[in-house]
Amino acid sequence: MEVAEVDDPVVGPDSLLVEVAAAGINPVDWKIVAGYLQGAFPHHLPMIPGWDVAGTVRAVGPAVVGVAPGDRVAAYARKDHVQNGTYAELVAVPERAYAKVPEGVDLVTAGALPLAGLTAEQLLDATDVRKGDTVLVHAAAGGVGSFAVQLAALRGARVIGTASEGNHDYLRGLGAEPVTYGDALVENVRGLAPDGVDVVIDLIGGEALAATPKLLADGGRVASVIDADVVKELGGRYVFVHPDGPMLDRLLQLVADGRLKVEIARTFPLERTGEALAANQDGHVRGKVVVTVP
Ligand SMILES: NC(=O)c1ccc[n+]([C@@H]2O[C@H](COP(=O)([O-])OP(=O)(O)OC[C@H]3O[C@@H](n4cnc5c(N)ncnc54)[C@H](OP(=O)(O)O)[C@@H]3O)[C@@H](O)[C@H]2O)c1
């Protein structure tokens, strides 16, 4: 990775040109830089990574209505090809992806929310989480997990979340009952939910996902963002987060209303994006790492 001067992005008829203020880091970003997603999307080098963004609209394409230069927006700005990402001063955002940032929500907070917040909400939709459910969230202290815990609690569910002990108070603050992961996972969860849980939200895969049959109550539901094959064998849903402006709008409103917290672990200036990616790759970030553009 290197910092370089490049041409301004092309703004299509249904896109917004956004001056980037903040761009959240997600594990997918370092996975793309490492080349792990080459089979999933066409890649064009040199490329700018980054899928989350918050900033100020500089220009809009001729077909775009309802948003104007000067408006503050956020987006999960994934496109069909990997090339022009958000770790930049300017990015073109497809109209389907953006939402306006409400007053009172700062752009670092807004830039940390889109991909992880949408993933959490789309997982809860896929498993039809509702009032009275007991939901187990694996990796509950991370970017997606922190939102999944809070959004499940807002739906009226009881939430159990896995994390290392250093994050247990943090999880309690979000509304979850914490359990430690590892060898005693099943025992720990069954200790809190002797009849099993209604829903498993998997953000980690491997042994945690494989333990699902020992954790679910009869008729329980499971969804994973990690392992499509295994979760389908288990009768569950694989979720790949899709951009959704109206859903992002609702999540930003929850943040503005003080009902959804966005935990910012650390920010890095744009020229240190490589360090920001490495901090996330460490795998133990609480909440979100964000790149900022002055
Ligand atoms: N398919 C999709 O659409 C999609 C969308 C979003 C994310 N994802 C994937 O989902 C995963 C999670 O994403 P994220 O943004 O939430 O990641 P993240 O923020 O980097 O997750 C970090 C968290 O993981 C926890 N953790 C690490 N090892 C764990 C383990 N063995 N068991 C339980 N928790 C553990 C850590 O808690 P402790 O420090 O307490 O261990 C830390 O808080 C990533 O692999 C990402 O690529 C997929």
Structure in words:
- With 294 residues, the chain is α/β, with parallel strands linked by helices.
- 30% of the residues lie in helices and 28% in strands.
- It has 11 helices and 15 strands.
- The protein has helices spanning 27-33, 107-112, 114-126, 143-154, 168-174, 185-192, 206-210, 212-215, 228-233, 245-256, 273-281, and strands spanning 15-24, 43-48, 52-60, 72-76, 82-84, 90-94, 98-100, 134-137, 158-162, 177-179, 197-202, 216-224, 237-238, 264-269, 288-292.
- Strands 1, 3, 4, 6, 7, 14 and 15 form a 7-stranded mixed sheet that branches. Strands 10-9-8-11-12-13 form a 6-stranded parallel sheet, with helices on both faces.
- Strand 12 (216-224), helix 9 and strand 13 (237-238) form a beta-alpha-beta unit.
- Helix 3 crosses helix 4 (143-154).
- The chain is globular.
- NADP nicotinamide-adenine-dinucleotide phosphate is lined by residues 26-28, 116, 119, 138-139, 141-145, 162-164, 167, 181, 203-204, 208, 225-226, 239-241, 280, 283-286.
- NADP nicotinamide-adenine-dinucleotide phosphate binds at residues 26-28, 116, 119, 138-139, 141-145, 162-164, 167, 181, 203-204, 208, 225-226, 239-241, 280, 283-286.
How would you describe this structure in keywords?
30% helix, 294 residues, binds NADP nicotinamide-adenine-dinucleotide phosphate, six-stranded parallel beta sheet
Topology:
Blueprint: E1 15-24, H1 27-33, E2 43-48, E3 52-60, E4 72-76, E5 82-84, E6 90-94, E7 98-100, H2 107-112, H3 114-126, E8 134-137, H4 143-154, E9 158-162, H5 168-174, E10 177-179, H6 185-192, E11 197-202, H7 206-210, H8 212-215, E12 216-224, H9 228-233, E13 237-238, H10 245-256, E14 264-269, H11 273-281, E15 288-292
Parallel strand pairs: 2-5, 8-9, 8-11, 9-10, 11-12, 12-13, 14-15
Antiparallel strand pairs: 1-3, 1-6, 1-15, 3-4, 4-7
Helix pairs in contact: 3-4
NADP nicotinamide-adenine-dinucleotide phosphate binds next to α1, α3 and α4.
